[in-house]
Design goal:
binds zinc ion, 84 residues, single chain, elongated, two-stranded antiparallel ribbon, 11% helix, three-stranded antiparallel β-sheet, 5 strands
């Protein structure tokens, strides 16, 4: 029984897997070479990379903060019936 965990994403900066609830979503400028570009897009980042000064110039904002784990004693509230 392989317990597949699909609830992960990849940090844009270090390319490490990170649990989706722990991911920061940071705004980055779409075309950094264009100083007039204000289009942004959000990418997942781990907390470490988000705070990394080397990435600070890339990150123009925080789109979404990690979801703190709250549910503890809940046994999977949503159980979808479809199983692949
Ligand atoms: Zn990272």
């Amino acid at each position: 029984m392989a317990k597949k965990k699909t609830n992960t994403t990849v940090c844009t900066f270090c390319l490490n897997d990170l649990p989706r609830p722990e991911a920061w979503w940071v705004d980055m400028i779409m075309h950094r070479s264009d100083p007039n570009c204000t289009s942004k897009y959000s990418v997942p980042s781990c907390g470490k990379c988000k705070d990394d000064p080397e990435n600070a110039w890339l990150i123009v904002g925080i789109a979404e903060e990690p979801q703190p784990k709250k549910e503890k004693k809940e046994k999977k509230p949503k159980k979808s019936s479809k199983e692949e």
